[in-house]
Structures
1.
Amino acid sequence: MRRGLHLRFLVLLALAALPPAIAHAQESLWMLSTRRLPSAGEGRPPVFAPAVWRFDAGRGWVASSLDELLRAGCQASATNVFIHGNDTSAQDAAEMGLALYRQLQPHAHRAAPRQFVIWSWPTADLGARVRKSAQVNELRTNTEGYYLACYLSRASPEVPMHITGYCTGARITTGGLHLLGGGTLAGMQIAQQDPAPRRQIHAVLLAACIPNDWLLPGQPHGRAISQVDRLAITVNTVDPVLRWHPLIWGRGGHEALGMTGLPESWRLGPEQGKVVWLDLTLVLERRHGWKYYKSSPQVITLLQSEQQRASVARAESERTRR
């Protein structure tokens, strides 16, 4: 009964938020939720069996399946995945994803359909216990990274993937990419194909709540960059939330990637050229919330640019195969 009420709420929310023109848009809109999935398995990785909904013009959110989502992705010119950050309810995730969808959809190529996936994951909100909430959420990102890697490994390698991760959603993004590259995360790994398929992945990390050295070789997410064609990272050196990142687990923690950028990036070797930066310090100043990022013309231009690159990558790949 509760799930039915939740679905009806999402239908009403979507119908109110989306413009009438969506009925003719050459893009499919999906929501993948891991909110009911366990945070860890008992001695083995948890089973990736998310709840999935597809937006149907005129009907709103319709219950679907992971298999249907993956089949639809095979027909798309590119897939966009949006992963939210902390303190985000299911309703908030839907609103945030829908708003970003509307901002990016008018710039999608009409000649070929695109796929947009809202990744909805459970985040703790323990009220005044801010530090405890941050710890719970950071631990959950390991499992979410595993779930993301499971999804990416099953998606068609021929379809370019564009991932936008905000705050701890950025940590899920790089954790998933690290696992996709054959890494281990919190004792979890995913089955690797031999030979591994060549994938086209572009990622954007907004206000990345990740220790600033984790993407370097040998670090917890050290294989993430090997899996992308391009990685764009925003930096705000006065972010009021990220400035507390070193204290989440006590004194002596690393500063956040979204606040300092990647130190010693020369250690990436040839892969250093994959990483680009956008300094938003003067734009956002002491603001961290998602509403400020989605309202920033610089951020939207960045996302549109990376989306365009994914489409170009698909077109070039098809020409090469011919």
Note: Confidence is low (pLDDT under 50) at residues 1-25.
2.
Amino acid sequence: MKENYTILAASHISGVPTESIRAWERRYKALTPQRLQNGRRSYSTEDIEKLSLLNKLTHEGHSIGQIASLSTKNLKNLYQKHSPQRHPLAEDLIKHLHDFDMEKISEIIEESKLTLETRSFVLDFAAPILSEVGILVENEKMTIAQEHIISSILRSHFGTLLQISANLKPQKRFIFTTPEGDFHEFGILLCAALCLSRRIGIHYLGPNLPAHELIMATKMLSPKAIILSVARLPKDLQKVDIPTYLKEVRTHTSASIPIFVGGDGYRPRSSADKGIQFLPTLAEFDKMLENFTK
């Protein structure tokens, strides 16, 4: 049975605000959703896939007017082509990942970690590889098991990077976590490593943190900022309502402590998310850090 979604559901899943969906349809003919008997729009899974791709590409700087008419296939190709460029060492890593050679993969990551500045290791090596592997899995050119292999090895290497923070005595420290029920920690791992590259200390609380625990930790640790990564989860796996979670944290922590949120599972809703700053990409997070340290 073909699934159909309301515009609100399409917005939530794709990350595109409802007003933008309507504007893209009206101005650029990006989509032509079906109309129900009551006149309301009805979106297919294919429509939502296209909206998600348009959302990612516009965040990367593409003009909606230039890409709205492209097919989903062409949008996928464009997204893959203009994703962060692969580091030379990544060529060998992907090859060894196809061969399930975990020892070689770990050696390449260790070499990259030693030869690259931390910021370059994150932005030019680790993040593009994770993005590429995700695309390969989505296109069934790599298995979920292989994705788990690279995730596990990278996580262990990031663990050693984060230990550096214990030797720093910075004036500024950020808290990093994900909401309760969200075990996807690579977003906060990458962001935490970027903080270290700018000598900003970290309080790494790991994933899956209830709101009241985050509030308590914030009061005890007095960070300069709270960093949250929110993954897009299936409805049956969502343990908390993200806007409610964010509102609770914002209400019970000092307004002088900014809250930065990124990830596919959150999109700002104007006044409903007052006091929450959305950073859709790792590059924008890095830019925020640059401004923060001035």
Note: The first strand starts at residue 4 and ends at 5.
